[in-house]
Design brief:
Elements: E1 12-16, H1 24-34, E2 41-45, H2 51-60, E3 65-68, H3 73-79, E4 82-83, H4 85-90, E5 95-97, E6 102-104, H5 107-117, E7 125-129, H6 133-144, E8 148-152, H7 156-166, E9 171-172, E10 183-186, H8 190-193, E11 209-212, H9 221-229, E12 232-234, H10 237-252, H11 258-263
Parallel strand pairs: 1-2, 1-3, 4-6, 7-8, 7-10, 8-9, 10-11, 11-12
Antiparallel strand pairs: 3-5, 5-6
Helix pairs in contact: 5-6, 5-10
The protein binds NADPH dihydro-nicotinamide-adenine-dinucleotide phosphate.
Residues 70, 107, 130-135, 153-155, 158, 187-193, 195, 197, 213-215, 236, 239-240, 243 line the site of NADPH dihydro-nicotinamide-adenine-dinucleotide phosphate.
Length: 266
């Protein structure tokens, strides 16, 4: 039997493969408790080929909603009955209501919220590193907020495909200097893999924010390199909090205590 069916199941869950690293249960359970709710939020490791079965099973069990993380966001979109405009544009979802299989994508507004919280305004150029699912959401959000965007990806063809899919004005770059950007968003998996990126940090200043989407207890090598060279740096926790807050508010149709969620993290 699939391991996701074995334990007691929560009303809300994040589904990923792997999923152990996720801080979503911490955030959501802190908020649910503060709201005086009886529901809980868990994490289920679901292999890609079992996503459809897992969603049907959770629905039959009477559960309420799921967040989808890597690698389920695109497949989740295909399985949803209806999805909001952002999800349709990205062909990816991260939030699903199980009973009617209605979906939204809170990664895009969540990233925009995080820039507001961090006090980052669209001045100067932004550079996105990576061309996977997270980069797509970030580029969509930056474009909506009026940023000029450069894109670097290890595999050039993937960057070209992303530009064609999104239809956004993007300059593809192969070499770059960090000092030319107000905002550099690391949307690669390099930090998870603990691998360095080919970034020239020469003459960078505090005017540049190096924003790593990865989150964790320790700063990533990308953040450490940026700070050592004189830039500002942050990890992905504010985006994580903001997209989670938007998901929970949508499921429960109420305001959620964002500071409680933030305080729930290590
Ligand atoms: P994908 O697998 O879709 O994309 C991975 C990207 O990383 C590709 O562009 C790939 O390049 C690149 N890459 C992988 N390894 C390296 C390397 N060693 N050097 C350079 N580039 C590399 O992943 P996602 O887009 O879904 O996620 C990316 C990151 O964003 C993860 O760290 C994830 O945790 C984080 N994230 C954080 C969120 C938050 O709320 N804070 C939300 C969503 C994601 P190539 O095309 O060449 O293979």
């Amino acid at each position: 039997m699939s391991s996701w069916k074995l334990g007691p199941v929560s009303e809300f869950n994040v589904l990923g493969f792997p999923v152990k690293h996720s801080w979503s249960p911490l955030l959501h359970n802190a908020a649910l408790k503060a709201l005086g709710r009886s529901e809980t939020y868990g994490a289920l490791e679901v292999p890609p080929e079992e996503l459809s079965e897992a969603l049907d099973w959770l629905k039959e069990e009477g559960m309420i909603g799921v967040n989808l993380t890597v690698p389920h966001k695109e497949c989740g979109f295909q399985l949803a009955n209806t999805a909001d405009a952002v999800s349709r544009k990205l062909r990816a979802i991260n939030t699903l209501r199980l009973q009617d299989k209605t979906a939204i994508n809170t990664d895009v507004p969540g990233f925009q919220d995080s820039l507001d919280i961090l006090g980052v305004n669209p001045t100067g150029r932004s550079l996105v590193l990576g061309a996977g699912g997270a980069a797509k959401a970030v580029i969509y959000a930056l474009n909506e907020s009026g940023w000029q965007i450069d894109l670097w990806n290890r595999t050039q063809e993937r960057a070209q495909t992303l530009r064609a899919e999104l239809g956004v004005e993007l300059k593809l770059v192969q070499k770059f200097q960090a000092k030319n950007y107000t905002l550099i968003v690391n949307c690669t998996s390099s930090s998870i893999l603990d691998q360095d990126l080919p970034i020239d940090w020469t003459d960078v200043s505090k005017e540049t924010l190096a924003y790593d989407l990865m989150y964790g207890i320790h700063p990533s090598s990308f953040m450490i390199a940026a700070r050592s060279a004189g830039a500002n740096a942050t990890d992905g926790r504010e985006m994580l909090i903001a997209q989670a807050a938007r998901s929970l508010a949508w499921w429960l149709d109420c305001e959620v205590p964002i500071q409680v969620m933030r305080d729930g993290l290590p």
